[in-house]
Amino acid sequence: MLKIRQIAFRLGISFGILLLVLIAVGWLGLHQMDRNNARLAEIQGKDWDTLRLAEQALRYSDTNSRITLQLFLPQDEAQIHALQAARAENSRKIGDLLEKIEPLCDTPEENKLLADIKANRRPYVESYTRALHLLLDEKNVAAATRQNL
Fold first, then answer.
1. Secondary structure (3-state) at 131
2. How big, in percent rounded to 5, are the helix, strand and coil portions of the chain?
3. Separation between Cα atoms, residue 58 and residue 91, nearest integer Å
4. Where are the beta strands (DSSP E) in 7-113?
5. Smallest Cα–Cα separation from 132: which of 66, 80, 63?
6. At what angle do helices 2-71 and 77-101 cross, to 10 degrees?
7. Which pTM value belongs to this model?
């Protein structure tokens, strides 16, 4: 009888230890899954933030293109100055958005793409400014048109 109790006791202890090991392994696995999910959510959130910022910059750029076309239509000076102010504000916002996107770039490809965008944006803005100056300030439509081509 004593032997049966000892076997039952040892069996109970062994089963308890096995149950504790299974619970610990399960808890560690769930904890690791939780950390992985949090990291994945962080990565996805950062990518979505970058995408949203890029879409905003694109919207401002499209708006600037429409404003540029409107500037070349005959209008009174008050409208021209209002459009110029709106265009300058949009250009400032585009620059701010590009600066916000820069720290979010992780890969060399993203960094190169952003550098290319910044490098190609500068000549466009300078060309636009010269052409607009010729057209609006000096009323020289032919020279302004040649400058943009």
1. helix
2. 90, 0, 10
3. 11
4. none
5. 80
6. 150
7. 0.59
Cα dihedral 98/66/127/132 (nearest 10) = -130
Quote the Cα angle for 90-93-98, to 5°. Answer: 130
The CA distance from 126 to 45, in Å, is: 35
CB 1 within 8 A of CB 8: no
Check residue 145 and give its pLDDT: 46
Query: Residue 73 — φ and ψ, nearest 5°?
Result: -90, 150
pLDDT single digits (tens) 46-57:
778 888 888 898
One-letter amino acid of 111: N
- Give CA–CA dist 78/94, Å, rounded: 24
